[in-house]
Design goal:
Elements lengths: L1 E2 L5 H7 L3 E3 L7 E2 L2 E5 L3 E7 L8 E6 L2 E7 L18 E7 L4 E11 L2 E8 L12
Parallel strand pairs: 3-8
Antiparallel strand pairs: 1-2, 2-8, 4-5, 5-10, 6-7, 7-8, 9-10
Amino acid sequence: MRSLYYTTDLLNDLFNGFEQSFTSNQNFKVLKSNIVDNENHYSIVLEVPGYQQDEVKIEVKDRVLKVEAEKKQEPDEKKYLAKELDFSKAGASFSLPKDVDVNAVTAKMENGLLEISIAKKEEEKPKMIQIN
């Protein structure tokens, strides 16, 4: 896994544990993403051009958010001179920081963008104990 703020250690600290990992081979493309730290939640926006909503899967397991997109393509008999358009498989995964609520994840998809919102846990406040 690589840190999303991989340019400097200072930026790594700001992300408080957010990391992205991916596998790269000829049949798998990494989805490009933006991550925003909002006051009450994190937003992850991923480019998913050419994919329909039912072709995209989102899973959270063991504090890892995984996004996979797969387009089923029927084999054709065309004799291609060049074939660069291939949307068969793409994905990304993110290690989630400790301050997120993994049970409060929502997603919406519009115009080739997938936006995932992950709520932050409420900060634990110290409990004052009365002495009797």
